[in-house]
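Final report, results section. Input specification for complex C-07:
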Amino acid sequence: MYKAKVYITLKEGVLDPEGQAVCAGLHSLGFTGVALVRMNKSVEIMVEAASLDDARALVREMCERLLANPVMEEYHFVLDDLV
Amino acid sequence: MRFGIVVFPGSNCDIDCYHAAKEVLGQPTEYVWHQESDLARFDCIVLPGGFSYGDYLRTGALARFSPVMTAVAKEASRGKLILGICNGFQILLEAGLLPGAMQKNDHLQFRCEMRHVRLENVKTPFTTLGQAGQVLRLPIAHAEGNYFIDELGLEALLGNDQVVFRYTDKDGRVTAEANPNGSLHNIAGIVNRAGNVLGIMPHPERSTEEIQGGTDGLLIWTSLLAWWGERHA
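Structure output:
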């Protein structure tokens, strides 16, 4: 069993209205040094696979086909062998 | 002309679309549950607005895996008319039947109000009864209508005349104030290259009878009916 932690981030230059709102909230709390907030997603996946390489290929396919939208998002992930 | 109105778990404009096709246009119309896999009997397939699958992950991202979407892609490739409204537009984007993606509105609000859009292309089946530059007043109701595509993608859209509706003021001027959601290039609706798949954020089905506060949306329904009629006379 492998555990993947997938991070889905907005591509640079893609507007993030949620991040802007949170940034403004942090400013109003007095964190005036905050220059940028991006609201990204993380997804935890437990997956059965024969090897680490197989697990990596599976998770990559999941990202490509569903988890990230390539028009505006990028992804990366870390894999841990749970055994 | 036979209409199929696709119903996903979470669709909520399906009855309005059914009413527009069945009662206002007077055409044979059926609901189609999202598990169906054969849509060959329809001439026009409507993906209605709503919150399919609760908008989980991204709007439209999960609906595109419903069995019916394979059939929608098949009928689209055969030249059938596909009309995706609001969430239906978002689903068409996620399914890759239209280019681009939808982001949250730049002000983060859900906007439910009347807006003006200008006809940019009256050669599509969905706008054939319109005049170039004509302004329609249509209702919008969405939180994620902020259309995004990269520069090359926008060039391709414009070069192929795929932008069909843009948000404008009532006089047809494209301004930042007329843009209700931050949508790139004030885009409110686009077609695929072949022209038979339309995605539109405003709701033409909520604008077909006077009791709804306006009938400008009727132009889209009557256009596609007329377009089809000419080919099946």
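Helices of chain A lie at 17-28, 52-67. The CA atoms of residues 4 and 59 of chain A lie 7 Å apart. This concludes the modelling results for the funded period.
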